[in-house]
Write a structure and sequence with these properties.
368 residues, alpha/beta, Nucleotidyltransferase, domain 5, DNA polymerase, domain 1, 3 domains, 18 helices
């Protein structure tokens, strides 16, 4: 069994570790967190490694994390992660800006033809021949003390990242695709990827584009109100108001708290507390314009758009087969639906993707 690193819980130890790690040109990074009880993920453990060792940092002990923040924001240190976007989001309240520069081994693997969402354990087994323990995947990382099994699991999440990245980058360089990786990883530094707009919260509700516009407007308004309240209270949005209750209220459009309570979709105490706000939001929704409510990124396409999307998908598959990558690495189904509707396919037509889609077949994809 590999020795388990000591968990850093005090400021002086963190300062020493951060100073040591800052001398490395690249670091492996991972986080453990919990989402079930809060709107924002609860950061519970931060794992870092360089070629000389592994550091586990406990952010729940109240230690001053300034040395860590300085390290993570250091543009001279490349951060190596797997499926980086989630970790970037979890760390964003701490770092203030998305991590950069970085290397995402999941992206690297996809550019080599592996499944686009390949897991870290599967990738390590495939590329390095190590089998990682999975028994702690669903553990509560906020409970203390952490067990030896938890610490071993957490350490393994960064133990192999650097040699894995080296191996994948070497193969990408041999195929002339290292620039693809650099470009896709740099895109993760866009702050807009992590900025949630309460006005878009309604898009989490499936199928509402088929509802009558007034009901759509009520659901949009209620979803935005719920999102803002969840953010302010740092609670899961479903704890503020469950989706089923939100839909029922949007459908019935009660005009007072008594009518809201009569629906029976909320606990009486919650209806008393939140009812006046909900009724006020419904009244506000009734005063808003209804134009354009049917426009949505995944609205059901008409027959012509469906046919165009199928043709585009076939061409993307042909190009992907030639390149040896999964089609979604080049363009997602959502991208294709947008192209078929005549919307600007920004993500598909920029950077290296524009290059590989610029041939005779690619031009037709670009035109839609």
């Amino acid at each position: 069994m590999t020795s388990v690193p000591i968990v850093i819980t005090e400021g002086p130890a963190l300062a020493v570790a951060a100073a040591r790690l800052a001398r490395a040109p690249r670091l492996a990074l991972d986080t453990e967190f919990l989402r079930e009880r809060t709107y924002l993920a609860e950061l519970a453990l931060i794992q870092l490694s360089d070629p000389t060792g592994i550091e586990l940092i406990d952010p729940l002990t109240g230690l001053d994390l300034a040395p860590l923040v300085s390290l993570l924001r250091d543009a001279a240190v490349t951060k190596v992660l797997h499926a980086a976007r989630q970790d970037i989001e979890v760390l964003l309240p701490l770092t203030g800006v998305p991590l950069a520069p970085l290397v995402d081994t999941q992206i690297a693997a996809a550019l080599l033809g592996m499944p686009a969402q390949i897991g870290y354990g599967d990738l390590i087994a495939r590329e390095l021949g190590h089998t990682l323990e999975k028994s702690q995947a669903r553990t509560d990382w906020t409970r203390r003390p952490l067990s030896c099994a938890q610490l071993e699991y957490a350490a393994d999440d960064v133990r192999w990242l650097l040699p894995l990245a080296d191996r994948l980058e070497e193969r990408l360089a041999a195929r002339g695709r290292l620039g693809w990786l650099t470009e896709d990883c740099a895109a993760l530094a866009d702050p807009g990827l992590y900025r949630a707009d309460p006005g878009d919260a309604w898009q989490r509700l499936k199928g509402i584009e088929s509802l009558p516009p007034p009901e759509q407007q009520r659901l949009r308004t209620l979803a935005a109100w719920r999102e803002l309240r969840a953010v302010r209270r740092n609670l899961p949005r479903g704890w503020v108001l469950a989706d089923a209750a939100l839909r029922a209220i949007g459908r019935a459009a009660p005009t007072d708290v008594a009518a809201l309570k009569a629906l029976g979709v909320m606990p009486p105490g919650a209806a008393d507390k939140l009812g006046p706000d909900i009724v006020a939001e419904l009244a506000r929704a009734a005063s808003l314009p209804l134009e354009g409510l049917e426009q949505r990124a995944d609205v059901r396409p008409n027959r012509e758009e469906q046919a165009r999307t199928r043709r585009l998908a076939e061409r993307i598959r042909a190009i992907a087969l030639e390149l040896g990558v999964a089609p979604e690495v080049l363009a997602t189904q959502r991208d294709l639906r947008r192209i078929a509707r005549g919307e600007p396919p920004v993500a598909v037509l920029r950077g290296w993707r524009a290059g590989v889609l610029s041939g005779p077949v690619g031009e037709e994809v670009a035109r839609g």
